[in-house]
Amino acid sequence: MLHVEEVEVVVAHRDCATLRVGDVFLKIDADQSRTDTEVEAMALAPIPTPEVLWRRPPALALAALPGRPLGRLGRPSTASPAAWAAAGAAVRALHDAPPPPWSGRDPDRLAADLDAECARLLDDGLLPADLVTHNRRLAQAALRPWTPVFVHGDLQPAHVFVDGDEVTGVIDWTEAGPGDALFDLAVLTLGHEEHLDDVIAGYGADVDPDLIRAWWSLRCLLAIRWLVGHGFDPAAPGCEIDVLKARM
């Protein structure tokens, strides 16, 4: 009988699950279109990504990246300012590449999604009305026309791996597509405002920090009901609800 190493459940909910066995990550997704996007995006991305070992729907096997995550929402990051700047430089390289050939969300669609989510947050009583109203007003600034670039779409610092001050790779590309460059920068720095200047310095282009902050509000408002429904806690210290409160 073959020796099987300990199986670690990295994440599991109704939509998908990721398991780790040694140096292999096994992703199982109920929606194979997301896996299609991930595989295609990794092939197109000009920055390091995990090696695809094999794919047998509904499973995708990826090699583990060296290093450790840049940070995690709700926890202080132990990565250096130089590592955060390196992450900014990697994001800029991605944004400078040609966008993928599939469609992404535009400001009009996002505005409709935001209106619907805010209404449901209030109807469900998940957040106080003043918190939703204030952050909805801040989020409006992000909903301006933009030139689409190649965005990762879910660039949490937990998805960026670093070894020392170097980026070794980026994982979880299921949301990749054409989009607003500032959205990636916002997701990367969400809950880690102390590293915003480091990321912008590494990115090396004129960006408006206030628009990034507007995306923080927008991202949190759109995510909270999904997080609650999938077993996550947006009210944990330093997470989405605290980010919204900090904008008040």
TrEMBL record:
SUPFAM superfamilies: Protein kinase-like (PK-like)
All copies of domain Aminoglycoside phosphotransferase, residue ranges: 43-206
Pfam families in alphabetical order: APH (PF01636)
Any coiled-coil regions, as ranges: none
InterPro entries: AGP_Transferase, Aminoglycoside_PTrfase, Kinase-like_dom_sf
Signal sequence interval, chain numbering: none
Protein name: Phosphotransferase
Species: Nocardiopsis changdeensis
